[in-house]
Amino acid sequence: MQSKFWLILEWLILFIAFPLFVFSEWLHISRFVLFAPPILYALWHERNNLGYDGPIKPVGYSVGLRIILIISLIFSSAYWWLPKHFLHLPLHRPQLWIVIMLFYPFVSALPQEILYRQFYFRRYKILWPTPNLMITSNIASFALLHIVYDNWIAIFFTLIGGAFFTISYQRTQDLRWSWLEHSLYGLAIFTSGWGRFFYEPTG
Questions:
Q1: C-alpha to C-alpha distance for 102 and 152, rounded to whole angstroms
Q2: What are the residue ranges spanned by the domains of the chain?
């Protein structure tokens, strides 16, 4: 078993130092390229644990109702607070919007969920003395990842969303639920108008 010292060092590099390094913009390279190493590292470690032969685990009506409520809040809040940007992508940049709708779940949401949920929970479980500390560290780390967008709205949204994704994964141990929620909320954000805070830094 790997020592706690090396696991702590690894955790600090992947989930603290790396987002701060990308945020510093010391290297003027696409974020997708910069975040490839930690994602590939997680994929390598989880290469034997990514297959799902059985049906997705049921979680009850509460999750479905939560998804409907959150998506409704995303659209209604964009309508009231971002009227000039409401539905901007589908109305004004439909080709880009279609590309995001098709690829976001697989290119962005899925790699993040593998790294921040499956890999994180399986690899760093021994570092946290209680499940609540484990969950809190995961939510905070996921929000820190989005510091690269350089605005508080991205941090706030991912704190809330990360809490839902983490709880879904912790309860089911099934990546498909957290991936589904992550994908649906992300697509709603980009469609509604909030997506402007998840592009380049807005200052």
A1: 27
A2: 4-20+29-41+62-198
Task: Work out the angle at residue 203's Cα, subtended by the Cα atoms of residues 95 and 36, and round it to the nearest 5 degrees.
Answer: 60
Using CA atoms, how far apart are residues 113 and 132, in angstroms rounded to an integer? 19
pLDDT tens sequence across 171-203: 888 898 899 999 999 999 999 999 999 975 443
Report the alpha-carbon distance of residue 162 to residue 141 in Å, rounded.
9
Q: Exposed, middle or buried by CB within 10 Å (0-12, 13-18, 19+), for 3?
A: exposed
Closest CA to 18 of 30, 10, 28: 10
pTM over 0.85: yes
Residue 39, CA distances (Å) to 33, 68, 116, 179, 195 in order: 10, 30, 9, 15, 23
At 128, list the tokens.
């946290």
Structure tokens at 101: 């709708």
How many angstroms separate the CA atoms of 137 and 187, rounded? Answer: 25
The Cα 192–Cα 56 span in angstroms is 28
Q: How far is CA 137 from CA 20, 124, 190, in A?
A: 16, 10, 27
Tokens of 18: 């790396």
